[in-house]
Amino acid sequence: MHRLFLWGLVGFILLSSIPFTADQALAIPAFARKYDLPCSMCHAAFPKLNAFGLAFRDNGYQMGSEKDNPVNQPGAYWPIAIRTTIGYQFTSTNNQDVIKNGVPTTQTVRTGSVQDLGIDLLSFGTLAPNVSYNIVMTLPGEVGLESAWVRLDNLAGTPLLNFKTGIFEPDIPFPTKRILTLTADYLIYNYHPAGSTVEMGLGENQTGVELMGHEDAAGLRYSVAVVEGNNTEVSQKQPISPDLFETFTYQKSNQRVGLFAYQGSQPTQFLLDPTTMDPIDGTGYADRKFFRTGADLNLNAGPVNLRILGMIGMDPKQTIDTDDTTGGIQPAARDAKYNGGFVEVQYQPSPILIFNGRYDRVRNTQQSDSTVAHSEGNQEQMALSARYYLNISKRTDLALHAEFSQLRTTIVGAQDDVVKNALLAFDFAF
User: Where are the domains of the chain?
Assistant: First the structure.
């Protein structure tokens, strides 16, 4: 398996030396077909947006032309795109309890296979002037509705007022949906201390409403969202206690600085079904407040993009379950606190080649159990990737993607848990 990946990596390096001369359209091509423009107008390297693409997104997928209105599109045009990734993935996981030759033991388990990493069916655009929408469905397995929202744009004739409702990704500084590593997400967004019953993850889509605004040119931008806090079907809190997420950024000369904060609540008691004794959906009560807050920096210098994010979080002791064998939450002795973030560097020497390196870290600053060492459960992650675009046209995009990632979780008094992934795949959209 190691040899197969190494030979594939050699092939990637050789292909990267071939001077392709196709049109530089590096994006999910639904909008390219609509406006008859190269995808590189909006994307630095699919799926990463450039400054124009960010402005196009903020303006409700509108360019200010007659083509914005769907009634002016040819009858054969459908605003639909499909994206998927297919390739070979190798995974190594240590400290696994197994039975080998009838004897219980602990060892490293290594697996590898050719597989697909999922399929996204996307439809987005405008329903009418200043009314935009987005629908994303995911496969395989059970079909899932990842996002579905409608937004009223430029209310009162100003870009400072835009109203969105539905299922959407919170306006986090660096969206997980456009990440350039396919085996390693941003750790800090969805981290939870040991035993926490808080279900919210910043990297997950939320149900709710959002008011956002931006200046026409680079400058101030804000977003305030009232969201449910999770999309699970069990133990949801009552709608009278929604969560709040805010972001504020300032951008000048393609450099950006921002602040963000999430104030949420998590139920600790639930009404139970008398037959099954399971929690009844939407009946959670005795809410306790938790928070996430941080800052981000996005700097650009020629072909180099530097991204830095730091965040602190707290889950209250009432949401830490120390005994999951009973019908309710057994609270911990004290609140759980942590901090972390990541540093990411992207280098794009040409429109058809981009390299990405990232270091993530999460540190527990206060365990819910005072007898547990601070470092227990700390996480570190390293991820390296390279994407080379083999086919770049107004109709389709095809990238060869190579990646290696390693996630380490601290186990005090024992060997750390380590998960390694290597991926060589084709990532394409049409």
Answer: 2-429
pLDDT mean across residues, the chain? 84
Beta bridge partners of 260: 247, 294
Q: What pLDDT digit, counting tens, does each position of 159-198 carry?
A: 999 999 999 999 999 999 889 999 999 999 999 998 888 8
Taking only the tens place, the pLDDT of each residue in 36-61 is 776 767 777 778 887 777 788 888 88
CATH superfamily, domain at 2-429:
Porin (2.40.160.10)
pLDDT at position 23 is 32
Distance between CA atoms of residues 303 and 10, nearest Å? 24
Rg over CA atoms, the chain: 23
Res 16 pLDDT > 50: no
pTM (predicted TM-score): 0.86
| Torsion of the alpha carbons at 90, 96, 101 and 103, rounded to the nearest 10 | 170
Six-digit token pair at 350?
């040409």
For range 402-407, the mean pLDDT: 97
Residue 67's Cβ-count burial label (10 Å; 0-12, 13-18, 19+) is middle
